């Protein structure tokens, strides 16, 4: 049975970003299966959303850095194993989750890898935002209620309905693709602020590092005149910025890598590269 509106609302109300993401991913898979029963075989938007939400979960849980380093090291990734084990230990204990003691400590310390915490938060909010809007409309649609929302969204569901009536396989595939793209356009348009926030997280932490370093060394600096505080922050932050610059570059690469990857069963699609697959016969 397809998830109901009440099921979606229950998941939306979950406070923990990690648990909520797991529930969202599972709910998307159930919605996708229900769409297949209603409209016939073939990928629908919820099919892609399932795997996209699963990928988002890696960012939310803070796993991007270790995975990125592993891909960069290639055969030498075994050298990363001790650090990966320690990293997973911290992640399991809520390294980037504000509701845990470790997460609160990380937030207060302001490490060079704050970017991953900020990206985790932005992606979690985006994951929730899309599910609350689009997942809810799929639940309404599958239970016989009229979907609501912007034109592209409601039009997509109308195209899904036409798939049921169409007998020509080629035309069915075209209508399904059109509906998927219409919802995808709506999704990406709505997600743009969170995507930009996640990508820019590395530079947001770099810009205020000098100020934070100065205030850590001299708590009274918050009361200094701006004409003094500015140059002082620059001077104190020179050494910190060198470290942060490298960390920010690595963070941005890892975050971009994560956002441009779609992990499917038995295969990982790198969305920034060409597919070498052959085309199906027309």
Fraction of residues in H or I helices: over 70%
Determine Rg (CA atoms, Å). 22 Å
Tell me the distance between the termini. Answer: 35 Å
Tell me about the largest β-sheet.
Answer: 2 strands, antiparallel
Q: In terms of structural class, how would the helical and strand content be classed?
A: mainly alpha
Structural account:
- By secondary structure, the chain is mostly helical.
- The chain has one domain (5-200, 261-270).
- The model has no long low-confidence stretch (mean pLDDT 78).
- A two-stranded antiparallel ribbon has the order 1-2.
- 72% of the residues lie in helices and 3% in strands.
Give a quick rundown of the structure.
It contains 12 helices and 2 strands. With 282 residues, it is mainly alpha-helical. The protein has a two-stranded antiparallel ribbon.
Helix-strand layout with pairing:
Elements: H1 5-12, H2 17-39, H3 45-60, H4 64-73, H5 81-92, H6 101-109, H7 114-142, H8 151-165, H9 169-199, H10 201-207, H11 209-217, H12 226-259, E1 261-264, E2 267-270
Antiparallel strand pairs: 1-2
Helix pairs in contact: 1-2, 1-7, 2-3, 2-7, 3-7, 4-12, 7-9, 7-10, 8-9, 10-12, 11-12
Based on the model shown, name its key terms:
single chain, 282 residues, mainly alpha, two-stranded antiparallel ribbon, 12 helices, 2 strands, 3% strand, elongated
């Amino acid at each position: 049975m397809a998830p109901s509106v009440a099921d979606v609302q229950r998941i939306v109300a979950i406070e923990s970003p990690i648990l909520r993401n797991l529930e969202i991913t599972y709910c998307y898979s159930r919605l996708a299966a229900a769409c297949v029963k209603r409209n016939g075989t073939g990928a629908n938007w919820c099919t892609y959303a399932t795997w996209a939400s699963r990928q988002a979960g890696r960012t939310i849980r803070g796993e991007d850095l270790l995975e990125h380093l592993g891909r960069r090291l290639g055969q030498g990734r075994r050298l990363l194993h001790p650090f990966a084990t320690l990293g997973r230990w911290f992640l399991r204990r809520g390294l980037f989750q504000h509701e845990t003691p470790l997460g609160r400590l990380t937030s207060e310390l302001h490490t060079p890898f704050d970017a991953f915490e900020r990206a985790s938060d932005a992606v979690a909010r985006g994951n929730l935002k899309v599910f609350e809007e689009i997942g809810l409309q799929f639940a309404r649609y599958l239970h016989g209620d009229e979907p609501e929302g912007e034109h592209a969204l409601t039009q997509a569901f109308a195209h899904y309905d036409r798939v049921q009536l169409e007998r020509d396989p080629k035309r069915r595939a075209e209508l399904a693709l059109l509906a998927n793209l219409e919802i995808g356009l709506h999704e990406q348009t709505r997600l743009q602020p969170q995507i930009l926030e996640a990508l820019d997280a590395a530079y947001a932490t770099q810009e205020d590092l000098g100020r934070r370093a100065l205030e850590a060394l001299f708590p009274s600096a918050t009361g200094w005149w701006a004409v003094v505080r500015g140059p002082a922050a620059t001077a104190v932050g020179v050494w910190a910025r060198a470290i942060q610059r490298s960390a920010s570059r690595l963070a941005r690469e890892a975050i971009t890598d994560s956002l441009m990857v779609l992990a499917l069963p038995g295969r990982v699609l790198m969305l920034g590269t060409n597919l070498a697959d052959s085309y199906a016969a027309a």
